[in-house]
Write the structure tokens for this entry.
Amino acid sequence: MTGPDRDPSDDDGNGDEDDDRSVLAERAYGGGTPPSIAAIYAITSALDTDPVDCTTDLGFTLYDYVDPEALDTLVTQDQRNGTVTVELSLDEYLVRVSDTGRVRVIGPADPTGPDS
């Protein structure tokens, strides 16, 4: 699939490493790719569909959950006193967009994990 590539760095300081759920897809943004576009590619990759067919295959658009322009603005503004992470719940999935240039789609909690 074309689109923003996975960021090979695994430590962004957002606590994903301690999450008990698996990262299903990860995309980087920047260099001409806005966070909202990277989010669409990450979501469709995690849910195994083509970005062009997302509306018909999945029955929703990113705009159903967040204003893409607002998302882009929130995570790309200069944050002098901290960091910004936006999280969206898509059914049992979590989409995490951080101002570090990374979008992650995190899957459902493992039902066979230590808390079950």
